[in-house]
Design brief:
- The chain is an alpha/beta fold.
- The protein folds into three domains: 76 residues, Signal transduction histidine kinase, dimerisation/phosphotransfer (DHp) domain (Helix Hairpins, Orthogonal Bundle); 162 residues, Histidine kinase-like ATPase, C-terminal domain (Heat Shock Protein 90), CATH 3.30.565.10; 138 residues, Response regulator (Rossmann fold, 3-Layer(aba) Sandwich), CATH 3.40.50.2300.
- It contains twelve helices and twelve strands.
- The strands form two sheets. Strands 1, 2, 3, 4, 5, 6 and 7 form a seven-stranded mixed beta sheet that branches. A five-stranded parallel beta sheet has the order 9-8-10-11-12, with helices on both faces.
- Helix 3 packs parallel to helix 4.
- About 3% of the residues have low confidence.
Length: 426
């Protein structure tokens, strides 16, 4: 029997060492995978929490805003009407702060999306100007609008986000200006046949900004100083969000200012010319009074599935004004029982409810035999992201109306559903 040579012993030792290193690497890899899995789980839980918080906050705030809108359509004396308008302004401001915080979270998680459609740039700016009239009159500020003669009637882009940017700049201008004027200008310059640059500027005669603040102004959570934050309020997120929105639309944003002499903020975004295939109804700027003025030819019997008492009252009030009849189910289980004996033309389904949620209720309705397999189901939700919309459709829902509920959108969604039902029936 021969003794192993030193070379053999060396090989064995090297092999053992290598096996130990491989085992150690595998252990580290397993630990890292476990860590990554735990982080992903926490991120998922965070996203779920934010979605739930956003839904609850927007639901409650939306209910307040909608009830105030309904209140302003009733017979109020001058003082009551003034109080109602002030309440509406305060709730709108609170919702704006909420949306700033939620939008910032979307940017950080990479889940922010633009929603492009045809829009009128002049109408968009006019809606913002309308919101400034009362605050400017209260402060005694002159409000002027300058529009380029070459401005096209329509462009294709994300009007909601463009309006959000302008509204933020305009509100800041009014907030920080005690005397003088607010000037808004609107123009467009052609880049190519496929892109046009929409340019908007807001100039004020307010408190102005010092030069040393230039590099910090668009930083999240930043405000000039604690005194300004205390006096004027805000989250310090508005301008940061504006910059990120502008970048998403391939544009730029900037300002010029002098302490004590006012500021001029401007931004530009790339838009496309009017898209014929994207033509859609302009419902965003319609209010309750506009909807009530429409000639209503289609009335239906509607089931409201909603567990929030305030929202039940709000939606039923809208339906009464639209000329529909309705019944209310306080949850998914109650809705399934009502559908066993009742016949409805449309179902309005809240998505997040205690007990059986809206998507599970919809799945049960679609599995049942009879007319409920095809009855139009419209989701009511504060979660209106693209991935959420697809979940609703996959569950068997036909459309959705986002919260806070816009009276015009609800009216048109129901009207469209009734039109399709009658068309199939005939």
């Amino acid at each position: 029997m021969t003794n192993p040579s030193e070379q053999d012993l060396s090989r064995q030792s090297a092999g053992a060492a290598m096996r130990e290193q491989i085992a150690a690497l595998r252990q580290k890899l397993k630990q890292r995978e476990t860590h990554v899995s735990a982080v992903e789980k926490k991120l998922h839980m965070h996203d779920q929490l934010m979605a739930t918080v956003a839904h609850e906050l927007r639901t409650q705030m939306g209910a307040v805003m909608n009830l105030v809108e309904i209140l302003t359509e009733t017979d109020l004396d001058p003082n009551q009407h003034t109080y109602a308008k002030s309440l509406k302004g305060s709730t709108t401001g609170l919702l704006r702060v909420l949306n700033d915080v939620l939008d910032h979270g979307k940017f950080e998680s990479g889940k922010f999306e633009l929603v492009c459609q045809n829009f009128s740039p002049r109408d968009l700016v006019d809606t913002v100007i309308e919101t400034l009239i009362v605050p400017c009159q209260t402060k005694g500020l002159a409000l002027r609008l300058e529009v380029d003669n070459d401005l096209p009637d329509h462009l294709y882009g994300d009007p909601l986000r463009i309006r959000q940017i302008l509204l933020n700049l305009a509100n800041n201008a009014v907030k920080f200006t005690e005397r003088g004027s607010i000037d808004v200008s609107l123009s467009v310059s052609g880049l190519t046949e496929e892109n046009q640059l929409l340019e908007i500027a807001v100039k004020d005669t307010g408190i102005g900004l010092s030069e040393d603040l230039k590099g910090q102004l668009f930083t999240p959570y930043w405000q000039a100083d604690a005194q300004i934050s205390s006096q004027y309020g805000g989250t310090g997120l508005g301008l940061s969000i504006c910059r990120q929105l502008v970048k998403m639309m391939d544009g730029d944003i900037g300002y010029s200012s002098k302490m004590g002499h006012g500021s001029s903020f401007w931004f530009n975004v790339k838009c496309k010319p009017y898209q014929v295939e994207a033509e859609c109804e302009d419902e965003e700027k319609q209010g309750l009074s506009d909807v009530l003025a429409l000639e209503k030819q289609r009335h239906g019997h509607i089931l409201i599935v909603e567990d929030n008492k305030t929202n039940q009252m709000l939606i039923s009030t809208y339906l009464e004004k639209f000329g529909h009849t309705f019944e209310i189910a306080g949850g998914g289980e109650e809705a399934l029982e009502i559908l066993k004996t009742g016949k409805f033309d449309v179902i309005l389904m809240d998505v997040i409810m205690t007990g059986m949620d809206g998507m599970d209720t919809t799945r049960h309705i679609r599995k049942a035999r009879g007319y409920t397999t095809t009855i139009p189901i419209i989701a009511l939700t504060a979660n209106a992201r693209t991935e959420d919309q697809q979940k609703y459709l996959n569950a068997g829902m036909d459309a959705y109306v986002s919260k806070p509920i816009n009276a015009a959108k609800l009216f048109h969604a129901i009207d469209k559903a009734l039109t399709e039902v009658r068309a199939v029936a005939s």
